[in-house]
Amino acid sequence: MEYDITATGIRGLNEKLHAEPADSSQNWNVVNPNGAHAIAVGLNAPLNVSINGSTGYYCAGMNKLASVKVHGSVGPGAAENMMSGSLTVDGDASQYAGASGHGGLLNIKGNASSRCGISMKGINIVVHGNIGHMSAFMAQSGNLVVLGDAGDALGDSLYEARLFVRGEVKSLGADCIEKPMREEHIAFLAELLNEAGADATPDQFKRYGSARELYHFNIDNASAY
Amino acid sequence: MDKTPNTTPRQSSTFDDYTLSEIRRAAATGIYDIRGGGAKRSLPHFDDLLFLGASMSRYPLEGYREKCTTNVVLGTRHAKKPIELDIPITIAGMSFGSLSGPAKESLGRGATMAGTSTTTGDGGMTEEERGHSKTLVYQYLPSRYGMNPDDLRRADAVEMVVGQGAKPGGGGMLLGQKISDRVASMRNLPAGIDQRSACRHPDWTGPDDLEIKILELREITDWQIPVFVKVGGARPYYDVALAVKAGADVIVLDGMQGGTAATQEVFIEHVGQPTLACIRPAVQALQDLGMHRKVQLIISGGIRNGADVAKALALGADAVSIGTAALVAIGDNDPRWAKEYEALGSAAGCYDDWHEGQDPAGITTQDPELMKRLDPEIAGRRLANYLNVLTLEAQTIARACGKNNIHNLEPEDLCALTVEAAAMAGVPLAGTQWIPGQQSY
User: pTM score > 0.90 for this model?
Assistant: First the structure.
C-alpha cells in the first residue's frame, strides 16, 4: 500500500494504519513525509511501514508490534513510549529519541541529540553515531548502546537501565558509574549489535549503570519524611 | 509592694507553637518536612463570597419542584466523543500507588453512581479503577509511569498534566515503603526504592511543543477522546491562554489548596496561588480568546460543599474537581481511627502523612492489612452520597438565584466579604459597587 502524506494528510494515514487487523503484516510505503509530525503513531499490529524522507516530532510514537523504517532523519521524540516492534532511522534523530520507551528496538544509524533514552522503561536503543547531553536521564530499564561518543551528564539519576558506550563519555551524571562488563553483558550486547546490524564487537564497549546511591532520598532520616 | 507584678507570658505571632516545633524538628532531623493535605494556612477562599439570592429584581425558582439542570459536556472543541456528565463535579487525579486499589475502586464506584468521572494518576490505570468507572480520565504525566497505548485507547479522555496546585513547578516522590511489588511492576522499577516523579515532561519543553504533543495523542486516539490540560495555580491567565493555543479541549486549573499530592511543606504553603485567585484570570483568558464555554474550565483545590461548587461555576467554571474531600468522604481522617492517628503522631482530621503508607483508613497505603479496612462498596456509596449532596446544595443556591441551569449562575449573583476576595474574584465588596482593581470607589 502506498500513501502520499502531502496529498492526503497525516490523519488519513494514521486512521488507515489503525484500521489494519490485529495480525496484519501489510507493507505500507509512505511518501512525501516532508517533516510532518506524528507519522505512524499508535500502531497496534505487526505492520511494515517504510517512510521515504524525513519526519517531524514523535514518529512511531507509542508503537506496538510494527516495524517502521525512516529513510531520512527524525525529529524530536521518535519512538517515544514505544512498547514493542521497531523503529529504524537511516539518518539522525533529534532530542528525546526513545523517551520513556517500554520495549522494542530503536535503531538510529546516524547520531542522536540530547536526552536520548530519557526515562526509558525497557526499550533497547542502538545509536551508531554519537549522542548528546543528558542522555538516559532517569532511565529506568532497558539498554542504550552508543557506538560513538556520549555528551555531558550521561545517565544522570539513573535507575536500572544499562548503558554501553564504545567511544568517549564527556561526563557522567549523578549516580552513574562505570561497571565491569560481565559475560552476561557481553553475550547480550553481541546479540543486540547483531540485531541492529552494527559494525562493532562487545569488547570495544564500556558499561555504565547506577551506583544506586540515590535510591532513597535520605536514608539516614527516612522515617522523618 | 511585696513583689513586682509579672507580665503575662506572651506568645510571638511570628514564632508561634507550630513554627517553634518545626524549627526543632528541622534541627533534629536535618531534613525538610514532606506532607500532603494542601495549603493549611488561612487563605482567601470561597467562604469570602456570598450569593445575593433573588429579590425584587430576580425571580427565584421553587426549591423542590422546579427543574435546575446540572449536566455538563466536556471536550466539545475537537473530540468526536466528548464526555457527558450528569453533574459538574468530577474526581481529581490521584495515583494508584499513592492510593490503595480499594480506594481507587471506591472512587470509581462512587463517581459512576453519581454520574460523573474519575481520573487516574501517576502510576497508570488499574483494573479496579477502569472496571468500576463508567467515565475515566487517563492522566498523562511527566514520569509516564504505567503509560501505555492500550490504556490510552480505553480511556474516555486523556489529561496532560503540566502541574498541580500543591506544587506548581515541582515533581514528586513516592517513598519506598509504598512501592509494593504491584506498584513497582506498573512503574517499571524495583520494589522498595523511592520513586521520583519528574517535574517536567521528557519529550516536550514548551507550549509550541505541547501543541505537537497533543496532536500526537489525538492521532493515536483517532481524535475520538477529549484532551485535557491540567495546570497548577501559578500564572492562570497565561497558562490558560497557552493551553488553548496548544489545542486543549478542557483545562483543569488547580489552586494551592489542592491537597492530595505529597511534597515539601514549604512548597505547599509558599508556591502558587489560592484557588479563588485563579478563576477570574483563567475565565478572562478564555473570554479574551473567544473560547469561554468552548474550551471547558474545571476548577479544583479546596472544594468542600455545594456553595463552593456554585461559586466556582458562577465565576465562570464549567465544572469543579475534588480530591481531598473525596478521600474524606470514603473514610480518610475519620474519627473512628483516632487512636491510630495519635499513635502516628497526628490526629483524626489532621493526618497528612499520606506518603508514608501507614494510613489507618486503608486509603493512602499499600499495606494489605490496612487496605482490608476499606470496603469499596460502602465507600463508593458514601462518595456518591456526598456528590449528591454537593449537587443538591448547588442546585438550591442556583434556584434561589433564579437559575434553571446551574451553569447560568454568574458573577452578578455574588458579592465579597473582604476587599481581597472582591479583588480576586472580580465581584463587588458587599454593600458597595466597588470591585477593587477594576474601579475606583
Answer: yes
Q: What is the pLDDT of residues B227-236, one digit of tens each?
A: 999 999 999 9
Residue B312 CB partners (closer than 8 Å, separation 6+): B46, B279, B299, B303, B320
The structural domain count of chain B equals 1
The residue written with cell numbers 438550591 in the block is B396
Q: Touching check for B221 and chain A: CB below 8 Å?
A: yes
B414-423 residue pLDDT tens: 999 999 999 9
Task: Answer whether residue A218 is part of any domain.
Answer: no
Closest residue of chain A to B265, computed from CA coordinates: A225
Measured between beta carbons, the chain B residues lying within 8 angstroms of A56 are 212
- Domain of residue B194 covers 44-330+374-425
B400 and B50 in contact (C-beta within 8 Å)? Answer: no
A103 lies in some domain: yes
Inter-chain residue contact A217 with B194, CB threshold 8 Å: yes
What does the pLDDT read at residue B328? 97
Residue of A nearest to B193 (CA): A215
| Structural domains in chain A (count) | 1
Q: What is the DSSP string of B61-108?
A: PPTTTS--B--EEE-TTT-SS-EEESSSEEEPB--BTTB-HHHHHHHH
Residues of B in contact with A14 (CB under 8 A): 219-220, 222
Q: Do residues A83 and A60 lie in contact, with contact meaning Cβ atoms separated by under 8 Å? A: no
Separation CA B416–CA B432 (nearest Å): 10
Contact A102 B204 (CB under 8 A): no
